[in-house]
Write a structure and sequence with these properties.
α1 packs across α8. The chain has a single domain, classed as Alpha/Beta hydrolase fold, catalytic domain (Rossmann fold, 3-Layer(aba) Sandwich). It starts with a strand and ends with a helix. It contains eight helices and ten strands. The strands form two sheets. It has an eight-stranded mixed beta sheet, sandwiched between helices. Strands 7-8 form a two-stranded antiparallel sheet. The chain is an alpha/beta fold.
Length: about 240
């Protein structure tokens, strides 16, 4: 794994990243909610890129991992702008985006802004519009009333917070059901045993994308993480396809 470096945002905040150099396009991995670049799938993609001489950018969002910032202050808009700034500063030429869970929603927002630089996208259990389908009415009322919702999670010992600032910003970026003006090749990988993001979200996303080159791969016994050896192998084969490796 390459050493961790820091990108300095315009306001002085330091954002952690790792980068491998290589030929051709740059692969950019966008982690899920409260996740970071040290995750297994991100690391596997980075190792593949190094072994195959490809450029790859891993990063931690503000308030996550090794990056500075308070998580409670963050929104999708902030993270989108940070990712775009880092791509502009650290990546040359075309970009393939990989988005895991919430990172799959961020992938769409970043992809729309990249325009002609976007060469492909891979969504791993992508979760666009989770503000719409991911909470009960009672939970939405609690976010509006209390400013934060804490939920137990199987992925850590501490409850996961959803702050009103992030929730309200997410509502403003909901996109399923309208055309998403992205025309590059898109691959969506989703486990049908996913207890967090319904696999039909990937089908709705496929319908919404403008691109005609969209494939959805459903893994019948796959969970939300898709982190088993076979799942990671499928991801790397998909990366090789879109990256031309």
């Amino acid at each position: 794994m390459a050493e961790t470096r820091y990108f300095t945002r315009a306001d002085g905040l330091h954002l952690a990243y790792r980068k491998s150099e290589g030929e051709g396009l740059t692969i950019v991995f966008l982690p899920g909610y409260m996740s970071d670049m040290a995750g297994g799938k991100a690391s596997a993609v980075f190792d593949w890129a190094v072994e195959n001489g490809r450029a790859c950018l891993l990063l931690d969002y503000a308030g996550c991992g090794l990056s500075e910032g308070d998580f409670a202050d963050q929104t999708l808009s902030i993270w989108r702008d940070d990712v775009l700034a880092m791509i502009d500063a650290l990546a040359d030429g075309p970009v393939v985006l990989i988005g895991s869970s919430m990172g799959g929603w961020l992938m769409l927002l970043v992809g729309l802004a990249l325009g002609d630089r976007l060469a492909g996208m891979i969504g791993i259990a992508p979760a666009p519009d989770f503000t719409r389908w991911g909470f009960t009415d009672a939970q939405k009322e609690m976010i509006a009333r209390d400013g934060v919702l804490y939920q137990d999670t199987p992925y850590g010992s501490e409850p996961t917070p959803t702050w009103r600032r992030l929730y309200d910003d997410g509502v403003a970026h909901e996109m399923l059901g309208t055309e998403i003006a992205i025309s590059c090749p898109v691959r969506l990988l989703h486990g049908q045993a996913d207890a967090d993001v319904p696999w039909k979200i990937s089908l709705k996303l496929a319908e919404s994308l403008r691109s005609d080159d969209v494939r959805v791969t459903l893994i019948k016994d796959g969970d939300h993480r898709l982190s088993r050896d076979a799942d990671v192998g499928l991801l790397l084969a998909t990366v090789a396809e879109l990256a031309g490796g």
